[in-house]
Amino acid sequence: MGSLEGVRVLITSGPTRGYIDAVRYISNKSSGRLGTMIATKLLKNGAYVTFVYGVGSCFPDITLLEKDCACRLALIEIETMDDLLTTLQEKMKDNVFDAIVHAMAVLDYTPEKQGDGKIPSKKDKLVVTFVKTPKVIKLIRKLWPHAFLIGFKLEVGLSRDALIERACVSLIENGADLVVANNQNEIMGEKHRAYLINSHKKVESRCETRQDIAENLMNIILKQSVTIQTSRREEKE
Question: What angle do CA 6, 106, 99 make, to 5 degrees?
Answer without folding.
Answer: 15
